[in-house]
């Protein structure tokens, strides 16, 4: 194992990274049944960091069985909502108490700036758990007046959906794991969680805290492994009642096919190609800050990233000059350095993919305003990049790049209406933002944009209470808010003949 910047690490981080890693199944720490491992790479330098078990369908089968037993019988099945709520709060407290360490592990594993991990991913995670803990005691059915002539008393029961398979990506590994488990646990489900093979470490640290919080065995199981093995087996497993997935649209479609056999419930949070529209009356200084963060936060590896900028001719040069300056001033470096503002991409493959897209954009006729190259001598860095003069049919405008690459299109007064249609003209519909000081225009345009989350004079809009999800090929279902509880519950209608 090579741990660069090791002197910056907390003792607890060092201990965690250096220890042998096992999967968490039925409350026990176990290796893969076939004994295989997968290597975890540090994206800041490309060196191996550690290894974790490469679970397969056999391990998934054991984990699903444990989750089934925990769901049907025993302590969890009988637990009162108030006790579930306390466990969720306890887990939130444990995460907060260990937040610095988890942030360091996330930074080592994923590459992101440690402060972003600490005050973004990890802080959001414990707040989300607390928010969801509040729902435990408020999940209820209704009494329903019937139209039948005979007297009836009818009501609904809202009950947990059952055993949930949850497959999460590498861009916000810890936070995505908590997004998934928090509402499922609040509803009373049991879980088999499969983190991404690129970034499995924080899910294993989460499992340790789940054990420490006192969740009964089998309630949460964490199986590490490759998507096409462990992930595919989980999506296809006949005894899984629901599968929740965050990742690429391509894999989302595979999950859907796999889930078809037993028609398990499916929720999908998939890709995006989010537009940011800047009208000529926008506050440009504020817009520039929001747009830079919209595209460059998390090195552009954000499903809601504002990847397409539509800007009015009258202010385009001024705004782009400000954006170029911000891009060039961003401090690039290893996530563990506390002054880093943009870390590496997660993997060599991802770095190559982003660079290939930049080359493609230039071949398609875009103009390079800044960036455009890999950065540094080691690690998987790419410069923050702005491509001007892009048009709607270019592949860089249509396809998800998942890197720090902004595609710019300018529009005139006459094209103002058409630009909303262009903003809607991709297969995706996850997020969008509008920059204007005209209140009417802001709300009218918000209604026309086909996206699950819309920002006005801001881009990334996210909160534990706010439903999050996509239109079109950006997914099915809404996570967070009450809508997340709906994803993890089933309704029973009960009629009593009086
Ligand atoms: P990306 O393409 O950005 O790497 P993916 O959508 O491939 O993201 O991965 C998101 C998650 O889906 C990861 O946990 C990965 O292991 C998993 N995964 C990948 N392929 C499959 C598959 N065929 N079935 C189930 N899960 C998969």
How does this model look, in words?
- The protein has 498 residues and is α/β, with parallel strands linked by helices.
- It has two domains: 11-270 and 474-494, Aldehyde Dehydrogenase, Chain A, domain 1, CATH 3.40.605.10; 275-464, Aldehyde Dehydrogenase, Chain A, domain 2, CATH 3.40.309.
- It is 41% helix and 21% strand.
- The strands form seven sheets. Strands 14-17-18-13-12-20-21 form a seven-stranded mixed beta sheet, with helices on both faces.
- The longest helix is centred in the N-terminal third of the chain and has 22 residues, at 114-135.
- It is globular.
- The N and C termini lie far apart (70 Å).
- The mean pLDDT is 97.
- The site of adenosine-5'-diphosphate (ADP) has 16 residues, from helix 9 and helix 10.
Number of DSSP E strands:
24
Oligomer: single chain
Number of separate helices: 17
Radius of gyration: 23 Å
CATH architecture of the largest domain: 3-Layer(aba) Sandwich
Give the neighbour order of strands across the main sheet.
Answer: 14-17-18-13-12-20-21
The CATH class of the largest domain is Alpha Beta
CATH-assigned fold name of the largest domain:
Aldehyde Dehydrogenase, Chain A, domain 1
N-C termini distance: 70 Å
Report the helical percentage. 40-55%
Overall structural domain count: 2
Biggest sheet layout: 7 strands, mixed
Average of the residue pLDDT scores: 97
Share in β-strands: 15-25%
Judged by helices, strands and strand pairing, the structural class is alpha/beta
